[in-house]
Amino acid sequence: MGTIPEPEEFRARARHWLTTVARPRAAEGEWGSGSDSVAVFENWTEEEERAHTARAQEWERLRYDQGWGALNWAEAYGGRDLPAYYTGLYRAEEAAFDVPQRTEIFPVTQQLVAPAIGIWGTDEQKERWLRPMLRTDELACQLFSETEAGSDLAAVRTKAVRDGDSWVLNGHKIWTSGARVATWGVAVCRTDPDVRKHAGITVFLVRMDAPGVTVRPIRQMTGGASFNEVYLDGVRVPDTDRLGPVGEGWRVTLSVLAAERLDSGGLGLDNADRALDLARNQPRPLTGGDQRQAADLYVCALVQRLIGLRVTAALVAGREPGAEASVGKLYATGTMRRTSDLVSELLGPRLAADTGEWGTYAWTEHVLGAPGYSIAGGTDEIQRTILAERVLGLPKEPTR
Question: What is the Cα–Cα distance from 348 to 35, expressed in whole angstroms?
Fold first, then answer.
């Protein structure tokens, strides 16, 4: 590993590079100007999603090719072997420039799936997938959730049956973000129904354009379709696309889930800041209740940011964050709920009436979308169970 630059030196270099390839983001105008979008989940059509994904891929490839992409990865995979928190330092600088928004498919591919391949993949799989995923030539989605399993991911019913050098997959996945633009899906499957449920799972990478794969969008309350259900009907997957040993899929899955929770600490903070701006710019004096709700949101968002710093500190110290990740996820969903409560109180009927007034009806996108994150990435109940077992030392619930 080469010499690690000091954080301020690194940020200065990143800032200089960004000035050569992107325009500075326009300074926020006065309240009431610019976009008032606070959507939690985008409402794009498939054509819009594909077009935006293509623009974001162009930017990701440029970053990767010029050494600003896979910062914490080894040089063998196009990285610079820097500590993980340097990615956060870079993101802080990039936020000041007008570059394409990273939709969920990008962190899933680069920060969840690629690291899992780095841990569990064979040398051939690492050579085959890591560089293309880090560069975003290949994009991956998660084929985890199922309607029957609920929050108990180990209760998956999608079956994978061995057939010579291949596996045949049959099942139904749901709530899959990015399925329309992904080239690969990471599928958690049941390969042995006769052992305890955590032991009979295997993970596969499935081509999303393979025969038998059907993607159907799920209509959201907001009118868009960010999520999809994915049907696997006799999909044939070569054994070379199996990730990890047969029957060890639960451990592979946990690797992905741990990374997902680490990445969720910043959820909702931008909208929390926008809600506090809304409170400052009300055309009427704030009531005592308004002020208490605004103060509560401010403190919650501040604590969430501090937890994010603790996660970063753990990474700097060379250890994997544990409880901090679950606490951060809980605080993120709490911040989003408090944001909804505050804007609902401030706007009243203006929230529900599309009058064209800036910064009013647009908040329905947040109010309707925010509850989804109390489920996504591990439900609030799952996070509390993790804390009860791993921090408080309470006994685990008996497995059936």
Answer: 21
d(CA 230, CA 312): 35
Q: How many CA atoms lie within 13 A of 78 on its CB side?
A: 23
3-class state of residue 391 by DSSP: coil
Which of these is catalytic: 60, 229, 260, 324?
A: 260
CB 287 within 8 A of CB 173: no
Contact 213, 182 (CB under 8 A): no
Residue 314 has pLDDT above 70, yes or no: no
Q: Tokens for 353?
A: 């009436």
Tell me how far CA of residue 399 lies from CA of 231, 385, 391, 393, 396, in angstroms: 29, 14, 20, 17, 8
Is 42 noted as a catalytic residue in this protein? no
Which one, of 339, 283, 331, lies nearest residue 310 by Cα? 331
Q: Which two tokens stand for residue 75?
A: 């040089």
Q: Label residue 178 by pLDDT band (50, 70, 90).
A: very high
Burial per residue of 359-378, b for 16 or more beta-carbon CB atoms within 10 angstroms, e otherwise: bbbbbbbbbbbbebbbbbbb
Q: Rounded to 5 degrees, what are φ and ψ at 28? A: -60, 130
Contact 343, 275 (CB under 8 A): yes
Nearest residue to 57 via CA among 236, 231, 154, 182: 182
pLDDT for the residue 27: 61
Distances (CA, A) of 210 to 167, 215, 236: 13, 11, 8
In 10 A of CB 283, how many CB atoms?
Answer: 4
Tens digits of residue pLDDT in 247-305: 999 989 888 876 666 666 677 888 999 999 999 999 999 999 999 999 999 999 999 88
* Neighbouring C-alpha atoms within 13 Å toward the C-beta of 284: 8
| Mean predicted confidence (pLDDT) in 358-381 | 87
β-strand partners of 213: 232
pLDDT at 237: 98
Distance separating alpha carbons of residues 127 and 111, to the nearest angstrom: 17
Cα distance between residue 75 and residue 70, in whole Å: 9
pLDDT tens-place string over residues 329-366 = 888 899 999 999 999 999 999 999 999 999 999 999 99
What's the N-to-C CA distance of the chain in angstroms? 47
pLDDT tier at 229, thresholds 50, 70, 90: very high
